[in-house]
Amino acid sequence: MTQLLAMNTGNRTHSPTQRGDDLYETPLVAVRALLAVESLPQVIWEPAAGPGAIVRPLRATGRTVIATDLVDYGLEDSTPRVDFRMEQRAPEGCSAIVTNPPFKHAEEFVAKALDLCPEVYMLLRVAFLEGLRWEEDRDFGEHLARVWVFAPRLPMMHRAGWDGPVNSNSGMAFAWFVFHRNIRKMSRTGAQVHWINWRKVGKFDEVPA
Questions:
Q1: 46, 65 contact by CB (below 8 A)
Q2: Is the peptide bond before 80 cis (omega within 30 degrees of 0)?
Q3: Distance between CA 117 and CA 21 in Å, rounded?
Q4: How would you write the chain as a 3-class SS string?
Q5: Among 159, 155, 146, 133, CA closest to 191
Q6: pTM
Q7: What are the pLDDT digits (tens) for 184-206?
Q8: What pLDDT does 88 receive?
Q9: Sign of the four-CA dihedral 71, 72, 78, 80
Q10: Which domains can be identified in the chain, with CATH numbers?
């Protein structure tokens, strides 16, 4: 049963205990792709900043990125030991959240982000589209505007501190989920699904490798 559950969720190798803080750093190409297809605002909050895989390339475009995290990873110009799930308001002047949340708290992160900011950009497994979260209490479908599915799949995101075999391709399907608060009140067409080839988009000279 454990093996079958792992295969169905995409978590084929790491138990929750092994995953610890769930730090899987976002590939640079994923951030570049997002910048290529979405017009992000000037002031952004990254509440699961980690060592800065999303923060640094966004700051390199001239944007102000407020970086926080529950753990202190030593990222400069960031505020550690901030539990995003306990926050009551967004930083002053911030209208968007961009993050790759810990997988074990993904649903909580989306719900909290929508409470705090009108625009939310989350890097999530495509499997997040499944489940009752879209119909029941949280009804995320009321806010989902677009889904950018990576095809081909993103490079493998290895857990921080992983010293096992390094894979070049991810065995999991990921997408950028774009939420706008109460989007369904403005449009009845539903969320748009697009496919994005990270090898062909987002090659910005100003984004550091």
A1: yes
A2: no
A3: 24
A4: CHHHHHHHHCCCCCCHHHHCCCCECCCHHHHHHHHHHCCCCCEEEECCCCCCCCHHHHHCCCCEEEEECCCCCCCCCEECCCCHHHCCCCCCCCCEEEECCCHHHHHHHHHHHHHHCCEEEEEEEHHHHCCHHHCCCCCHHHCEEEEEEECCCCECCCECCCCCCCCCECCCCEEEEEEECCHHHCCCCCCEEEEECCCCCCCCCCCCC
A5: 146
A6: 0.82
A7: 665 556 789 999 999 998 554 44
A8: 97
A9: positive
A10: 2-196 (3.40.50.150)
Close Cβ partners of 124 (under 8 Å, ≥ 6 residues apart): 101, 106, 110, 174, 175, 177
What is the C-alpha separation between 147 and 87, in angstroms, rounded?
26
- Structure-token match 């857990």, residue found: 159
In the block, residue with structure tokens 């944007």: 63
